[in-house]
């Protein structure tokens, strides 16, 4: 499902109106005619489409991030998946005022980059990764990863953001990333490692234990890479459930 199939960002259009349009064969902006709805709603839809087309051509994901209801932002994914940055952080604890970010992994264009505290984890390098993407994709990133990075590195992250935790909840998938991965069939190279182990591995690295940092980086990178698989699967399931089959 693409944003061009959606009318729900328009003021005055809810799920029932959008569904009625789809049922009447109006499944794309190109299909729309004001006679399909009331005069005022028709005017609102036409105004939105006229503004949205050039925004979409320009790759302005932020416009659609603002326009779509929070529960429907998964619809941005199909349009912006190729320019999305899937990222995940590891930290020394859960409090961004007292704990530190240790590693950050970014998966984009099939490549994965990991920044490490004390080496290349700098505000400039993180900003460069975000600036190269139209859409950020995380799991629980709105409540955890982004606020943590903003506090730790004095950043202001304003890139459009799809948090898969909420996308998964629409499918009835709850809990942490690892249980959801298992439920939908995503396998891990090291399923025995958890977030608590990530804290332990960093402490071992600080003590100079060989291999600890490498294991932590591998774990963090797998988190970021698996977000791509999870996003593909979750949005496809929602697409099949939401949008009428052509």
UniProtKB/TrEMBL annotation:
Alphabetized SUPFAM superfamilies for the sequence: Ribonuclease H-like
InterPro entries reported in the protein's UniProt record: RNaseH-like_sf, RNaseH_sf, YprB_RNase_H-like_dom
Highest rank taxon of the organism: Archaea
Coiled coil: none
Domain YprB ribonuclease H-like stretches: 85-233
Pfam families in alphabetical order: RNase_H_2
PANTHER family: EXONUCLEASE-LIKE PROTEIN, YPRB RIBONUCLEASE H-LIKE DOMAIN-CONTAINING PROTEIN
The name this protein goes by in its record: Ribonuclease H-like domain-containing protein
Species name: Halolamina litorea
